[in-house]
């Protein structure tokens, strides 16, 4: 196993300065360990920059420990395009969850203009990439590119972040394809790109319930607890910034026939994309691939649209708050 260990983060620096072509500063080899170093890639123009690449099975066989990774072309023009990644994992390794490929590391991607900017990107092949005790930041100095803190974007791929702080100018996290797992992680802006994600710990929940049947042929609003639904909207105030996700519904009796009833989470009196429906004899359903961001002080409410001939009865609706 190859080991590269620096004297300290600030003494040993692997630096590709003022790159004029697409550059990867460090590519991990199989069965290697890199520790106590700083990796720095910079450019003043739009070239693709990657701090550390993880190809092959390196997500399983190699380790990165106690490092600072910075990639920076933030002084490039705001009209150009470049892809800037702190860590890019695109291999085929399948480590189990006990193996943290990256640990005790700060990763920063700074850029300008268009293109994809990521502190961590996991894509290309189906594989697992596990991180623990990491700080991930992606910042923009101008123009509307895609600036995500962490993203998984491949069906069958998995990115897990434990004890992590993640922030991006566009979104903090994005489960574009594959699986993103958070455990004791903090998306600073509570922005998950309106997509779902998984958590290891049971999140906070809000539960609404309706006893017996519901008034048919119209729109109603649930009250907290088990009180009867209302034709006036009833709000719950959220005291801190949150990601609201995973809306589920269960009923003792479904809508019946060809009837469809739909529950929708609302933010400050406006529908969000987070909705779930029951049709016919169906008595349970869940939407767990959509999320929405609530700021501190925003109000959440639950709307039900009931079909005219619905037989829906005894409903329980739950939403997760992260």
What report would you give on this structure?
With 322 residues, this protein is mostly beta strands. It folds into two domains: 3-199; 205-321, Jelly Rolls, CATH 2.60.120. Helices cover 1% and strands 61% of the residues. The chain is built from one helix and 23 strands. The chain has one helix spanning 58-61; strands spanning 2-5, 13-16, 23-27, 32-42, 49-54, 63-72, 84-89, 102-111, 116-123, 128-140, 146-168, 171-183, 186-187, 198-199, 204-213, 218-221, 236-237, 242-253, 256-267, 270-280, 284-294, 299-306, 313-321. Strands 1, 2, 3, 4, 5, 6, 7, 8, 9, 10, 11, 12, 13 and 14 form a 14-stranded parallel sheet that branches. Strands 16, 17, 19, 20 and 22 form a five-stranded antiparallel sheet that branches. A four-stranded antiparallel sheet has the order 15-23-18-21, with no helix packed on it. The longest helix is centred in the first third of the chain and has 4 residues, at 58-61. The model has no long low-confidence stretch (mean pLDDT 95).
List the helices and strands and how they pair.
Elements: E1 2-5, E2 13-16, E3 23-27, E4 32-42, E5 49-54, H1 58-61, E6 63-72, E7 84-89, E8 102-111, E9 116-123, E10 128-140, E11 146-168, E12 171-183, E13 186-187, E14 198-199, E15 204-213, E16 218-221, E17 236-237, E18 242-253, E19 256-267, E20 270-280, E21 284-294, E22 299-306, E23 313-321
Parallel strand pairs: 1-4, 2-4, 3-5, 4-6, 5-7, 6-8, 7-9, 8-10, 9-11, 10-11, 11-12, 11-13, 12-14
Antiparallel strand pairs: 15-23, 16-22, 17-22, 18-21, 18-23, 19-20, 19-22
